[in-house]
Design goal:
2 domains; mainly beta; 2 helices; globular; 159 residues; Lipocalin; 11 strands
Length: 159
Amino acid sequence: IIAHGGGLNGARTQMIRFPTQHCTIICLSNLSSFDPEAMIKRVADLILAEQLADAADAPPAVEMDAAALAAYTGEFYSPELAVIYKLAVTNSQLTLSFGGQEPISLRPIATDHCQTDHFQDEGQRKLAFTRGENGAVVGFTLSTGRAWGVQFERASRNI
């Protein structure tokens, strides 16, 4: 699946391509509150239901207890983006939040790897955690539909 979205001055767009199915869906809107991504997924579900039914599902979630999830929590800073992401455990689930946004649920898919179960304007978020010599999580690399390999490091209180 290839996807791209955008938004500027109230216009919202989303494009998704399914190369194997020879299908491209484009949604354009001039209403800032409209969710073209949700619409595009509904259209894809309608016209590609049979073809996508056999497609591989997302990787299964990896079960982690509260102690394992707690190792990933904290504030992480990206010098490249000058932003802090906060990871927390809420209702036994790892969540990510930033900039006053609602927390996004993260699903562990392998040791030190997790992802969102839904897409945002910039695509599905995938996090690959890094550990220091002592085994503690010291940061992560973030990849989305628009950016790959963005580095985050555990934030110090001086930021």
